[in-house]
Amino acid sequence: MSKIELRDLTKSYDGKVNILEKINLEVEEGEFYVLVGPSGCGKSTLLRVIAGLEKITDGTLKIDGKTANHMLPKDRSLSMVFQNYALYPHMTVKDNILFGLDVKKVPKEEQKRRLAEAAEMLGLTPYLKRKPRELSGGQRQRVALARSVCSQAPLCLMDEPLSNLDAKLRGQMRTEIRRLQKKLGLTVIYVTHDQVEAMTMGDRIMVLQGGKIQQTGTPLELYNEPANTFVAGFIGSPQMNLARARMTDMGLILNDSLLMPVSEEERGRLPQGGRWQIGVRAEQIELAAAGDPLAIPVRVVNTEMMGNETQVLFEVGKELFTARWTGQYLIEAGQDLTIRLSADSFHFFDEASGMLTRAALQIKGHAALTA
Ligand code: ADP
Ligand code: MG
Questions:
Q1: What is the pLDDT of residues 77-87, one digit of tens each?
Q2: Less crowded by CB within 10 Å, the N or C end of the chain?
Q3: From the CA of 165, how far away is ligand 1's center (Å)?
Q4: Phi/psi at 194 (nearest 5 deg)?
Q5: What sign has the CA pseudo-torsion 354, 356, 362, 367?
């Protein structure tokens, strides 16, 4: 059992500023739950509150249905993995992995069995006699994970465990952690500032900014229906293109500069009002066919050739928009192109509050693809 509930949880360190404000959260048993947000938004604080390392200022924390605001950390049956691994440098890999089990009075035979299993699972068997300094970053992080596995705590809290690793290793470890979590049936609360980790690992995600929840949902809910412009800009790579938009007789005008023709049908599907902020994903911007009456001329500022795809940047007023096309487009900076934008693929946000008023009606690849 390892269900976590927060009700209106508020945390202040100094009694004046709230670092976390009225956080509501339910993490189900066996779920991989990701807390994501920019640096300083309160992610680590939230994790430490759940671990019992920080006092709760207001609100309730429940573990398995029981109020746990004052429960001691050691009674919460959880393990923690940190960014800096938190290994003991003078102890061997084996002793690091088994650390804490003596205190918990786990019999030696049982410790041996757990060690063998965890080391095998994480590919650490050849390194058990080494010291942490004789390991690579990835191996050290696996030792920290092995300790967490050996503790057999049903709840594992991870605070940016991969941010010290290089990109390739990060990719491998993402898969490894997810596999391990499923195999052991762990409940995991995973903190990261990296939206790619959040999208690829989370069953569900909470986006935090300034100590407040911006949105919670599955990765695709966040991608397809971002609750506000913050989530829209934070989730997804390249970043969603955002602009001011107003409706005129000739069409939509973006950032007071780019005129975008809108067909009669699309016009009928626009949300209420005449001014919005709009967001459009890079993959929704298309290259116009010759003679297309809805084509929009733009001048290319820069291109990024990825090999499998090409990202093309152009100006919309003072902002840069990115389009993303599968394949290798040889386009020079300064070249003129015509593109096509569809208002049906726009997310519309309230001009003042930035809250979503109409999600995109058309999302590429959204036709429920199944393998
Ligand atoms: P994140 O993990 O998202 O980067 P943190 O939870 O570490 O954010 O920090 C959130 C805010 O709380 C920051 O403004 C930070 O300066 C402040 N903070 C963190 N720990 C403490 C502390 N022990 N005392 C006072 N302020 C703190
Ligand atoms: Mg942190």
A1: 888 888 777 89
A2: C
A3: 23
A4: -100, 115
A5: positive
